[in-house]
Design a protein that fits this description.
By secondary structure, this protein is an all-alpha fold. It has 17 helices and no strands. The protein has two domains: 45-234, MFS general substrate transporter like domains (Growth Hormone, Chain: A, Up-down Bundle); 255-434, Growth Hormone, Chain: A (Up-down Bundle), CATH 1.20.1250.20. Helices cover 72% and strands 0% of the residues. Helix 10 runs antiparallel to helix 11 (323-343), helix 10 (293-321) packs across helix 12 (347-362) and helix 13 packs antiparallel against helix 14 (379-408). The termini are far apart. The relative contact order is 0.15.
């Protein structure tokens, strides 16, 4: 009995094995594990192999940067004498610039190329992140708020090029690798949280931490770009017949595609689930079970750790079962885990729920990104929709759960509101199967007509 079309495996890329630097063949290139840092020098790798390693480093740097400052929120709050409402308002206002940039990023990547947009974003983030440290040092809310806005704009400029390049790399490999990049982000998040905790324990000034970390991550990003993070060619395939209408109209047209919006709904649910957990799991566990703040942080670590592990090992499930089945199992696992956490009467059961919730959420956003990029010619615009809806979810997760928590008198039960969007993602899961417009030969991604990069 033939497999359904939505379970069909994507056609594999055809890459001939390269010889190593000594002229020896594949037996000395040992491909199957960790990308051969030891066995093959970077110069001897194919462009997609080198780009994968460099993009993993870029994603890890983004996680480290973001969570190194989230770990210092108490210090920032105290230095600026902010109430919880004041801090929330500043973060919300700062997010508007990021959101506007996310919506424009598709046109920017199509016009200027991934490399140029990524370069500008890396520089803008360094400026914004430094100002976020200068603000508390000067006890200036305005400087801190300006830093939040600039940092958000820079992050939005980085977001789409990184996701577009991750899809090109996956298409070049002919197998699932996108979740590995998000696993690298999660690993960087753990490292950033630890760095922030160590800096706080040793009374390192926020301005010093932010300036040093921002500069180092900025240098890392530019170094990965110079070393070949963006593969040769263009993420946009030249169409056989130019469509009528302006480029901007074509970029905006994807917002009217029902299939793209349903894939975006999956990404929205995943980002909302992850953002709600990052902001509220620790506090919800402390308030719900009367535990210490340190143990609440450990519970958050369980969530992030389970996501990281699943993003590393879950690629085999996607290749073996297909996107649709994997997404359905993931969403069901996240729903069960979140319900277990929200309704458990024992802390041990709640911790198990947190682990299952994180494992179920882990693959949903990467699957959405992959589904949006099946057609390389429309990938930047469609990935922009996914990234935009994910950004909206990330921005709204904390305040939505906070409002519900105020009404219910507790964050743990308030988190159950996330079940609504997870159920919606489960309903929309059939839309993430391979598209009929997917590129026939993944090598076309590398051979496409060059645009500015």
């Amino acid at each position: 009995m033939p497999r359904p079309a939505w379970l069909a495996e994507p056609k594999r890329a055809r890459f001939e094995p390269e010889s190593d630097a000594r002229g020896m063949g594949p037996p000395f290139a040992f491909r199957p594990s960790v990308e051969l840092f030891v066995f093959r020098p970077p110069a001897a790798r194919a462009p997609h192999e080198r780009a994968r390693l460099l993009l993993l480093a870029a994603f890890a740097g983004s996680g480290l940067l973001a969570f190194s400052w989230l770990a210092r929120i108490p210090s920032v709050r105290d230095a600026l004498a902010l109430s919880a409402a004041d801090l929330g308002a500043i973060l919300l206002v700062g997010s508007f610039g990021a959101l506007a940039t996310v919506f424009a990023s598709s046109a920017l990547v199509s016009r200027f190329g991934s490399a140029r947009v990524f370069t500008v974003g890396a520089i803008v983030v360094v400026v914004g992140f430094t100002l976020m440290g200068v603000g508390p040092a000067l006890a200036s809310r305005w400087v801190f708020g300006l830093g939040i806005v600039i940092n958000g704009v820079g992050g939005a400029l980085l977001n789409l090029p990184m996701n577009v390049e991750s899809t090109r790399i996956e298409q070049a490999y002919g197998r699932t690798v996108i979740p590995h990049f998000h696993a690298a982000f999660s690993a960087g998040a753990v490292a950033g949280s630890m760095l922030g905790a160590v800096a706080a324990a040793n009374d390192v000034p926020v301005v010093a931490q932010f300036a040093v970390v921002g500069a180092l991550v900025g240098a890392l990003r530019l170094a990965t770009l110079a070393a070949g993070m963006v593969m040769p060619g263009s993420p946009v395939r030249a169409p056989e017949r130019r469509e009528r209408g302006s480029g901007l109209r074509r970029e905006l047209a994807v917002w009217t595609e029902p299939a793209t919006l349903l894939v975006g709904l999956v990404a929205f649910a995943a980002a909302l689930s992850e953002g709600a957990a990052n902001n509220w799991v620790s506090l919800a566990f402390v308030d719900g079970f009367g535990s210490t703040e340190a143990f609440g942080a450990i519970v958050l670590g369980v969530f992030i750790g389970s996501m990281t592990i699943m993003r590393v090992v879950g690629t085999r499930a996607i290749d073996r079962l297909g996107r649709v089945v994997t997404l359905q199992l993931s969403a069901a696992l996240a729903i069960f885990g979140l319900a277990l956490f929200g309704l458990a009467s024992q802390p041990q059961v709640a911790i198990i729920g947190v682990a299952l919730w994180g494992a179920g959420t882990a693959l949903c956003f990467p699957i959405g990104v992959a589904a949006a990029s099946d057609d390389p010619g429309r990938a930047p615009a469609r990935v922009s929709v996914v990234a935009s809806l994910g950004s909206v979810a990330a921005l709204t997760a904390a305040p939505v759960v906070g409002i519900v928590a105020s009404a219910l008198g507790g964050a743990r039960h308030a988190l159950l509101v996330v079940l609504v969007v997870l159920l919606a993602a489960l309903v929309a899961s059939r839309r993430v199967g391979p598209s009929l417009s997917a590129v026939a030969d993944p090598r076309d991604v590398l051979d496409a007509e060059s645009l500015p990069a």
